[in-house]
Amino acid sequence: MEIKPIADLQGAFWTEDMDVLGKVDAFFQAHIGFFDLAAKKTCFLIGVLVQMLLDIQQLKYKTSKPPFRSKLQGLRLTENIVKRLSYAAQNKLEEYDKNYYRKLEALIAQYMIAAGPKWSCTNDEISFHFTLGMNMAGLFKSRKDEEGDEQSDE
Fold it and tell me: Least enclosed by CB within 10 Å: which of 2, 41, 94, 140?
């Protein structure tokens, strides 16, 4: 199995005609064996969304520790905490009037429904996939996001 450096993935995903849904689909297709459960995809995508919020807060408050970070429980997460983070992040983005991620939120909702009411992942797997999403959030931003000119994914 070939592992592509992040820079290569970023180049492949940074096309103006590919929206966040296309990027997510391409990413999960490229790593289909790794993301074998809807719950893992859910955790990963919530991690992406939370990191996007943290990036917005970092710019807003000009601090290295954005306020929402305190809600992450030291990244020792459970199913209930991740579900709570999902709606808390969405609410905070709405409060800031910077919710550019409605398509991503809709996709998260679809994966949550597919995962069912009780996930079969351990807490370590939940924390791991969430953190991966945070670390790879940059892959799912548009060029304009990276340049500091915020843009909606709608």
Answer: 2
pTM of the model: 0.86
Q: Which residue has the higher pLDDT, 55 or 63?
A: 55
For residue 98, give Cα distances in angstroms to 15, 94, 119. 23, 6, 30
**Tell me, what's the pLDDT at 11?**
61
Q: Which two tokens stand for residue 135?
A: 């670390």
Domain count, the chain: 1
**10 Å Cβ neighbour count for 63?**
11
Full domain range(s) for residue 126: 20-139
Is there a domain that residue 152 lies in? no
- CA dist 32 to 8, 49, 57, 149, Å? 18, 21, 32, 32
In a domain, residue 9? The reply is no
Give a yes or no: residue 32 inside a domain. yes
In whole angstroms, what is the distance from residue 130 CA to residue 44 CA?
A: 5
- Burial class, 18, CB count within 10 angstroms (exposed 0-12 / middle 13-18 / buried 19+): middle
Q: Reduce the DSSP state of residue 107 to 3 states and report it.
A: helix
Measured in whole angstroms, the distance separating CA 77 from the mean position of its chain's CA atoms is: 15
Q: Which residue in the block uniquely carries the two structure tokens 């996007």?
A: 52
